[in-house]
Amino acid sequence: MKLKKDIVTGNIDGKDFAIATGRLAKRFRGIINNNKTAAYIFELLKTDCTEDEIVEAMCKKYDAPAEVIRADVKEVLKQIKDLGIVE
After folding, report:
1. Cα–Cα–Cα angle for 47, 39, 3, nearest 5°?
2. Is the N end or the C end of the chain the one with fewer CB atoms within 10 Å?
3. Longest distance between any two alpha carbons in the chain, whole Å
4. How many Å from the N-terminal Cα to the C-terminal Cα in the chain?
């Protein structure tokens, strides 16, 4: 899975966000405010990757139990999928 091409991410004053542009903006309006974990997942999703690959990358980056990381990843991915912003 990966973010749809019309999703743009950014950071202003230390606040991470994502917005829809182009045709996707007609269906999804607004700003997604991301915490550091979600922002990292969004960055990983700029290229095609699986849930397991995201969990593996996050386990390397963060000092937390794998099961906690997997639960966080599942939650963020569910929200992203519900918004319809991944392919």
Report:
1. 35
2. C
3. 39
4. 5
pLDDT, one tens digit per residue, over 5-31 is: 999 999 999 999 999 999 999 888 889
- Please, is 3 exposed, middle or buried when counting C-beta atoms within 10 Å of its C-beta (0-12, 13-18, 19+)? buried
**C-alpha to C-alpha distances, 27 to 6, 12, 17, 24, 83, nearest whole angstrom:** 11, 24, 18, 5, 9
Q: What are phi and psi of 11, to 5 degrees?
A: -145, 125
Residue 73 is predicted with a pLDDT of 97
Q: Is this model's pTM higher than 0.90 or not?
A: yes
